[in-house]
Each structure stands twice: as C-alpha cells, then as structure tokens.
Amino acid sequence: MGSGVQPDSGPGVGASPRDVAALVLDKIRQGNAYARTRKKRFSRSASMTKVATLGLSAASTVILGVQNLNAWTGLALACVALVTLLGAIEPFFNWRSRWVLMEEAQHRFQRLADDLEYLMASTGADELTFDQLREIFDQYQTIWDDLSRTWLEHRRELAPSGRA
To answer: Which of 18, 26, 73, 102 would be a feasible disulfide site paired with 39, CB 3.0-4.6 Å?
Structure first.
C-alpha cells in the first residue's frame, strides 16, 4: 500500500491527518479523471464501430439489391467485407464493456471523493484520525483492484480463441 498514508514512513512522514486526507482526495480525483478520459474514448470507439457496421451493412444490402451495376456490386461486397472486419474487431477490443467499466469506476471514485470530503468537513481538525483515512484509502485501492481484475477478466474472455 502507499506509504504516504502512514504517519511513520515515506513521503508523508509527520503529515497531519488533514494533509493526508488532502493527498488521498487528490489521488481519488486523479483516478476519477483517468476513468473519465478512458470512458469517453471507449464510448466513442464503441459508437463509431456500431455506426460504421450499421452503415456498411445497410449500404451493402441496398447496393446488392441493384443487380445491374457491377461497380455497385463490387462496392457492396467491399462493404460486406468491412462489416465482417468490424464485427471481428469490436469483440476483440470490447469498447462497450470497457466504457461501462470506466463509468462504474468513475462513479465509485466520485462517491469515495464525496465521502472523504464529507468526513473532512464534518470532523474537527483535531478529531480526524489516520484510521479513518486508512479506511478511505483502502476503499480507493479496492476500486483500482476491482477495475484491474475486471478488465483482465474481460480481456481473457474475449481473447481470440485458438483453443478447441
């Protein structure tokens, strides 16, 4: 665990509980910002893949319906090939699941930040303890552990299968 949260070692040596609370709050906000930027990226990728797949599929169907034009038929076959490619790419990258995962992580980071801000506001300067902060920091670490574990599980499930 991070040594900055323990009063007797590391960068936070001699820090007051308020200073440690501010440090933990900053780390939580950084985690939230990380989840927010990843969520936006995954959302955009998932949406673009879906729209491209839908557009190419619709275009290929319409074009194949026009039987007399060889150039259009060739274009339609290219669209079908691209739909197949996108259909294979999306599950591999699994943008939608990663987007939802970041949405959940962002919610948990924000909730934890709110809890810590409330604790800081409702507790007198001399009453805030390292034990209270340790509980918050442990929850922060749990969010990262859950995020990493879930991401790895998604990657294992959706890895290209060469197994029989």
So the answer is: 102
pLDDT tier at 90, thresholds 50, 70, 90: confident
Task: For residue 136, give Cα distances in angstroms to 23, 41, 129.
Answer: 12, 28, 11
CA atoms within 13 A on the CB side of 104: 13
For the question of whether the overall pTM of this predicted structure is more than 0.70, the answer is no
What is the gyration radius of the CA atoms in the chain, in angstroms?
Answer: 24
Q: What number of other Cβ atoms are within 10 A of residue 73's Cβ? A: 15
Query: Residue 119's closest CA among 129, 110, 109?
Result: 129
Mean pLDDT of the chain: 81
Dihedral of alpha carbons 104, 105, 110, 115, sign: positive
Q: How far apart are CA 23 and CA 136, in angstroms?
A: 12
- Average the pLDDT over 4-20 and give the result: 67
* Helix, strand, coil share of the chain (percent; to 5): 80, 0, 20
Mean pLDDT of 139-162: 80
Query: How many angstroms separate the first and last alpha carbons of the chain?
Result: 41
Burial class for 71, CB neighbours closer than 10 Å (0-12, 13-18, 19+): exposed
